[in-house]
């Protein structure tokens, strides 16, 4: 299983595909949340984000490549 890093902003704004060609995430799945200042912002949709010792990540459903999010 491979691992990579991807910018959170990129994932929130455009369709994201794995290097194997499988679709992983689309901005239509985003949700609105409030940040620590009380402002509404876009975030990864509920249930889409996984977490381990390496941090938050999205995983390709086919090849299981982990894409850790850079904030």
Give the N-terminus to C-terminus distance in angstroms: 23 Å
Strand order within the widest beta sheet: 1-8-7-6
Summarize the amount of helix as a percent range: under 10%
Overall pLDDT score: 96
Beta-strand content: 35-45%
Main pleated sheet: 4 strands, mixed
Q: Tell me, briefly, the overall form.
A: globular
Q: Tell me the number of helical segments per DSSP (H or I, 4 or more residues long).
A: 1
**Based on DSSP secondary structure assignment, what is the total number of beta strands?**
8
* Element order: H for helix, E for strand: EHEEEEEEE
Structural class: mainly beta
What's the oligomerization state?
single chain
Rg, Cα atoms, Å: 12 Å
> Would you identify the regions where 5 or more consecutive residues have pLDDT less than 50?
none
Structure description:
This protein is mainly β. Helix content is 8%, strand content 44%. It has one helix and eight strands, in the order E-H-E-E-E-E-E-E-E. The chain has one helix at residues 8-13; strands at residues 3-7, 16-17, 23-25, 31-34, 40-43, 50-52, 55-59, 66-70. It has a four-stranded mixed beta sheet. Strands 2-3 form a two-stranded antiparallel sheet. Strands 4-5 form a two-stranded antiparallel ribbon.
């Amino acid at each position: 299983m491979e691992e990579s890093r991807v910018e959170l902003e990129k994932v929130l704004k455009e369709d994201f595909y794995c290097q194997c060609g499988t679709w992983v995430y689309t901005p239509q799945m985003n949700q609105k949340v409030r940040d620590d200042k009380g402002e509404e912002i876009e975030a990864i949709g509920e249930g889409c984000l996984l977490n381990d010792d390496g941090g938050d990540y999205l995983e390709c459903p086919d090849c299981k490549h982990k894409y850790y999010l850079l904030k």
